[in-house]
Structure formats: C-alpha cells, structure tokens
Amino acid sequence: MKNKFSQSLRNIFYLGVKELLGLWRDPMMLILILYSFTIGIYVGAKAQPDSLTKASIAIVDEDRSQLTNRICDSFMPPMFLKPQIIERPEIDSGMDKGKYTFVVVFPTNFEKDILKGETPEVQINVDATRMAQAFTGAGYIQTIISQEISKFAHKNGIPDAQAQIVKRNRFNPNLTQSWFSAAVQLINNISMLAIILTGAALIRERECGTLEHLLVLPLRSFEIMVSKIWAMALVVLATAGISQLVVIEWIMGVPAEGSRLLFMTGLAMYLFAVTSLGIFLACIAQNMPQLGILLILVLLPMEMLSGGSTPLESMPPLIQKVMQISPTTQFVSFSQALLYRGAGIDVVWKEMLALFAIGSVLFWYSWLRFKRSVA
Fold it and tell me: Hey, where are the domains in the chain?
C-alpha cells in the first residue's frame, strides 16, 4: 500500500514537471503570463485616473467681485486647467465644440447676496459625455465653491452652520483609485490564467495525441489531472506573488496591510478551485476556440459579480446568494480584508474554509468528468 502511494506521488511529480517543461517551450503562453502580471496589471489599474486631472473649465463671472475672484483662483492644477473667463453667449458654442468640460456661472450681485445672508444660485454646466471627469469634477467644484463661500462668510462675520461634517477616509486616505484597481486586476488575471493554463494543458495533450499515450501507461486519471493542477497552480502562484510584491507594492506604491504568507495561503486555496474549474471546462471543450468561448461565458460573470468592481451588497438578493458558491467571490472578500484592512486569520478563516470547500467540490466533479472523457 505504501509503495503504491509513493509511486503515485512520483507519477504526479514527474507528470507535473513534464507540464512545466511543456509550458516553458510555449512562447505565447509565457508572453501571456508575463504581460498579465506586469503591464496588464499596471494598465488596468491606471486605466481610470486616480482623481480629476487637467479638466478644462470656464468661468462666466457676471459679478466681478472679490469672492468670485477668490473662487476662480481656487481652480488650480493639477485637477483643473487654468480657468478661461468667457461670456454667457459663449457657453453653448464652447461646450458643443468640446472646449470646456465645466462652465461655472456666477450671477450678478453674488457677493452682496452672500453678505445679506441669502443663498444665491451658482450654475454648473457639465459635459456629461466625458464620464470619467464629469462625475468626479462636479463634486470637486461644489466642494471648492462651498469652502470659499464658508471662508468668506466667516471672515465677514456671517455665522456658519452649527454642525460641520468631518470626513476621515480609512485604508485609502487620498481615495487613490489605482490602489483599489490594482488588487482587482491582479485577482482577475489570476482567475483568467489559472483557467487558461490548466485547460490549455489538457487540450494540448488531446490535440497532440499524447493523452492516449499517457493512458496506456500504468497511470491513473487522478494522477494525470492532479499533475496538471499542481504544475499550473505553482506557475500562477509564483508569478502572482512576485507581481504583488514588485509591480503593485514597489512600482505602484500600493501598501499591503496584511500578512503575505496568509495571502499566499489563501491564493493557493483559490488556485485549487479555479484550476479544477479549468480542467472541467477543458473536458467540455473539444479545442482551444471552444475553451475561449466557455471562458468568456464563465469568467466574465464570475469577475463582474464577485464584488471586486461593485459591492456585493448593492446587487439583488438572489445574485448575492448565488455568488456565494463562486470561488472568486470568496477570494475577493478574503483579499480585500487582508490587503486593504490588514485582517488576520481570525477574520478571514470563513472565506478560506469556503474556498477549500468549493475547491473540493469542483475538484471532485472535474475528476469525474475527466474520467468519463478519457474512458
């Protein structure tokens, strides 16, 4: 019994080494891995700007007062370009031509109305076709105007409101978008590569005819499947760990609050699940194009509904319940708690247990499907 077990371990090891050598001789796969964990993560994190940057703005100042001048001087780089002073008839033509993303209109007697304690209206025209800047920029403009009015009113003896709101941003004080996007992009690329590498390894064996050669040897289907899982999971685990340390932490400057060892442990459990899913998809697909189609049908919902891009709590209750059986949902929750908030194992043990349970079910079902496909 012991000899059979040790022989089975040797078979799994040497078959896994064969998979690693086969991957090393595949330049396109190596380029995909290198791109996904370097340029792919950097571009994905920086695709949306961290904050408002160099937005074009114009001012229609019909008051020409000290207060409006102070507000105009507050729109400074790098968030805004130097404000252009225009007249009211120029608003429509300037926005139609795309010259201005924002146009702020101060009415006549704006400062006098403020000194009287009244609430004059300020018109903000926004070019909403520029979605990335329109949503964020409108909030910045309102905040800047409100702050300058408050300072001016306090200076001139006008009482402020009794209650003030004080914001304290935890875990990401400057609300840097790339801090969040980098980790999400890393998780997405891990999922994609884990499924592609394991699925491609099995399909490559089938297309080249080497799978039949393995089956005539004294090897079991379990050994063949496990060898592909551990070899491809090891590649993704190593490259993802290096990417998280070098690209995300060192190059992009994103801090990692939690334990790296705990993160790698959770990542290994997640790879156990998604590589098993890759084997299952490869058993259904007959060739690489079919695997690519299945990958789109499976991977996109997993990523979009995992809670990485949109909080899971904002989704319909049915979607929330269904996505609890997805390994990506559990790993996103695990990664956010660990990397962003510095949580320990006392917080993330439920996600780790769920990953192990989901991975075990996927592995068992994939093994049954693999045995049936090679029978």
Answer: 2-48+176-374, 57-155
Q: What is the mean pLDDT of the chain?
A: 85
Query: Alpha-carbon distance 226 to 217, whole Å?
Result: 16
Fold of 57-155: abc type-2 transporter like fold (3.40.1710)
Dist. CA 97–CA 265, nearest whole Å? 54
Q: Cα separation of 105 and 92, whole Å?
A: 13
Specify the amino acid at residue 130. Answer: R
Largest Cα–Cα distance in the chain? 94
pLDDT digits 0-9 by tens, 169-214: 666 766 677 777 888 889 999 999 999 999 988 888 887 777 767 7
pLDDT of the residue at 278: 93
Alpha carbons within 13 A on the beta-carbon side of 118? 9
Asked if 256 contacts 244 with a C-beta cutoff of 8 angstroms, the reply is yes
Q: Which residues of 316-351 are buried (b: 16+ CB within 10 A; e: fewer)?
A: eeeeeeebeebbbbbbbbbbbbbbbeebeeeebeeb
CB crowding 72-88: b at 16 or more within 10 Å, else e = beebeeebbbebeebee
Q: Which long-range contacts (CB under 8 A, 24 or more apart) does 99-102 make?
A: 99/56, 99/58, 100/56, 100/57, 100/58, 100/127, 101/55, 101/56, 101/57, 101/126, 101/127, 101/130, 101/133, 101/134, 101/137, 102/55, 102/56, 102/57, 102/58, 102/126, 102/127, 102/137, 102/138, 102/141
pLDDT at 48: 63
267: amino acid identity, one letter:
L
Distance of CA 158 to the CA centre of its chain: 46
Measured CA to CA, the distance from residue 223 to residue 202 in angstroms comes to 13
Distance of CA 140 to the CA centre of its chain: 24
Given a cut of 80, is residue 280 above it in pLDDT? yes
pTM of the model: 0.77
